[in-house]
Amino acid sequence: MISLSRVKEVISGHDGLPRLAAPPDLSGRNRPDRAMRITELLADKYLRVLTAYDYNPDSAGHNPDSAMTMVVTDRVVVATDENVVRLRFESVDRSPIPAWHPGSHLDFHLPSGLRRQYSLCGDLADRTGYSVAVRRIPDGGGGSIEMHALQPGDRVTVRGPRNGFPFVGEGSALFVAGGIGITPIIAMVRAARQLGMDWHFVYSGRSRESMPFLEEIAGWDQSRVFVRPDDEYGLPTAADLLGRAPDGGAVYCCGPTPMLDAVRRGFRETPSTALHFERFGAPPVVDGKEFEVQLVNSGQVLTVPADESALDVIKKTLPGVGYSCQQGFCGTCRVKVLAGTPDHREKRLTDTEQENEMLICVSRADGGRLVLDL
């Protein structure tokens, strides 16, 4: 938003709208030349657009990069295997939280230094707190264990909300969730129900005991819902997951990599026209080539195979290397490149930043060696 108070030499026209005062021509006469007259007309039209509506500070939104200190106010087990907990976070001063939309997540900066993203799964209309649900993964990267250890009264730093999985609230839609992939999907289905959309929902998981939110889902229109645990139905095929894909509508999917791969392959056989998905964990490497990375602090040279990421290889040598999303959007694994040319496979860094930095979770090198500031 450009502030009109910072535009020099603003005057008012006969209609009361601000206009830019054109300077004299090169001979000092108060008759602007043709170029300046065109500039004046264009500026006048631009200012007319800017002043057509009153400024609404709510439209400016919330800067998702701003750090917020929040306190845990509730912790509830939401799966009968006791491996999924729902955590509620409120502002320390109980001030209203920034609004969010289905598919949004928060970046959690945990006390250990880990940074992790968790999808919001609470009530969109509730401006007093955020809710996330986290599955405990004993052999994961440690973030879920640390989240499970949080208790009411504990404080954490968060950034967001951010949305890399936007929901379009119109038309018809099929929602597909696998396991803890229910967290962004449940907020979308709630919104679709409130909007009166034509929706269907397929929910897969290892067993009913491992699947959170079943009690709430049982209260929905069961003609639109298919809950299919693997121990009852077997592993789902693309046809099982996409059988209710709407003609001309959209499919939203979140879950483990095998599910996403099946949905992506099978989507072309459906009558739907749009596929939106979010994956947990790293995507498979496509068209990768083997290359080397040298860690400048130790001088070690590591070989990155064609089907692995630089992060996968580096964290075997440096277990404390920073990372989170493993998909190239959070920026936690950003590293300075001291020599070599990266093959950038992300869209977070600017052109200038890409000149001497890379995200090692997805970006690579097209052969050769990269020297990294690690």
Describe this structure in words.
This protein has 374 residues and is α/β, with parallel strands linked by helices. It has helices spanning 34-50, 143-148, 182-195, 214-217, 230-233, 238-242, 257-267, 310-317, 351-354; strands at residues 10-12, 18-20, 68-77, 84-91, 104-109, 115-119, 130-135, 155-163, 172-178, 198-205, 225-229, 250-255, 274-279, 291-295, 301-304, 334-339, 342-343, 357-359, 364-365, 369-372. It has a six-stranded antiparallel beta sheet with strand order 6-5-8-3-4-7. Strands 11-10-9-12-13 form a five-stranded parallel beta sheet, sandwiched between helices. A five-stranded mixed beta sheet has the order 15-14-20-16-18, covered by helices on one side. The two termini are 40 Å apart. It is built from nine helices and 20 strands. The relative contact order is 0.09.
